[in-house]
Amino acid sequence: MEAGVLVLAGGSGTRLGAPTNKVYLPLAGRSVISHSLLAFARTPAVKRLVLVARATDDDHVRTVLGELPDIDVELAIGGATRHASELSGLRHLAPAIAGGEIDVVAIHDGARPLVSRDLIDRILTAAADTGGAIPGIPVTDLVDRETLAPAGKEHTLVRVQTPQAFRAAELLDAYERADAAGFAGTDTSACVETFTDLAIACVAGDPANLKVTYPADLPVAEKLLSARS
What we know:
The protein is an alpha/beta fold. Helices cover about 35% and strands about 20% of the residues. It contains seven helices and ten strands. It has helices at about 30-40, 60-65, 80-100, 115-130, 170-180, 190-195, 215-229, and strands spanning about 5-10, 25, 30, 45-55, 75, 105-110, 130-140, 155-160, 165, 200-205. The strands form two sheets. Strands 1, 4, 5, 6, 7, 8, 9 and 10 form an eight-stranded mixed sheet that branches. It has a two-stranded antiparallel sheet with strand order 2-3. A hairpin with a 2-residue loop joins β2 and β3. α3 (about 80-100) packs across α5 and α5 (about 170-180) packs across α6. The chain is globular, with a radius of gyration of 18 Å. The protein starts with a strand and ends with a helix.
């Protein structure tokens, strides 16, 4: 199996109270997004690594690439929405997908700097075997709205994380069909479910794979990164 990876650098720093895109904030000696890129670069199955960034963030992108001088990171210009950015990244990889050089494509939020090699491997393997794979964490704090008692197992939901991975040819075709239909999904799996017949496996996620969203997330992420080193 050979994989391509799109790491998305969209978003903002609004909820963090930051003046810039949160994925470029400093974290444990490098930018938040650099940690994600490094994790994928260290995964042998990953043959193409693409940073999908906004055209206006070129100064930040140069900083990130300077933090990772020994890693081959390709660039694609993102769109106005997450869906548009995913399409842009897939079109960047389209020649390799058409040529059979990439079997699976994974899409990851750059604001998740703690993605582990183990999770990446499991997601890529499940996607190659099944057609698609997403990581999920069980939501255990639900209550019954009538009794306010803890909800039973029949109400179990999962909180979906990234990376999400899918067979490359079907994923690209789904996004091209979605573009022609004017469809924009809330996440990658929504587009795949709408425009393909691929089965999507839910793989056990990683509680440490947090998304940097609020000010308290940065010190937590730094402690977790320090514990790994």
